[in-house]
Amino acid sequence: MVSPEGGSGSPDKESDAEKIARLEQELAESKTENERRERRVNAAERKKLELEGEVLDLKEQIEKLKRDTLTGLENRGNFFNRLYDNLEGHLDNDDKLLKLLEQDSLSDEDLEHLGKIDFSVTSIDLGFLSKYNEDPEITKHFGGGHGGGDKILEEMANDMTEVIAEEEPDVSDDKLKSVAYRIGGDEFAIIAPKPDEEVHDLLKKVQIGHSKIEIKGDDGETVPVDLDPVLNYGVASIQEAAEVFVKAIPAEMKAEMLKDKDVLIKKLQDFMINILTVGLKELRPRNGL
Fold it and tell me: What is the pTM of this model?
């Protein structure tokens, strides 16, 4: 059959030229859509990287807030957070500890159990640090200011960190590591997952390292400093805190505290801090300071 235009076949049939043009158009549209999709993906990837950068910056800022600006040690807030977490962990994982706290007295067997709990807190106090800030033999190397005291604090922090690293070279679990803190102007602390005896050994090494130290003055001169008269130490264990809790808290009040873990933990925490404070007062100082 001949078409009206004189051709043959269906009048709607696509010619080769039209087919090529259509395919080229579809290809161009597909390419455009792919480019749009790629731009969206790239934009999303950039946004993701920006957000990751912001999260990283935020984490770094949070980490800085956890640390003392002078010494780089973790600060007072972190000290109390970890102290709380450690007490909570022992109460959650040691059923006998909670039962002992319910009692009115502790037997030798009870005390033996408490003594095996590897958790102690130490405080290290540079009492009368102002002595060095006012010593003309030191201040003359720091333009008459208190730079010497800051250098002593930095040296103390570095030494504590080094002693802990030397004592625990193979400890990879953060929960099992001892950690040093600066909790006040001239006050430091260590939370140690160790029994008392090992903590005292650690403190002896810190004391030996700080009996006599050297700091560098702003004038470049090396300044010898004798810290022995002002270094004071205190140690408090979970055993001591539990003993005080059992003996000092009236039965009715004790029963109420044992119903609320948060209240119980904070009370044990208070006892440990008080034990440290009393210990430091008893040690303060020597040599008429």
Answer: 0.73
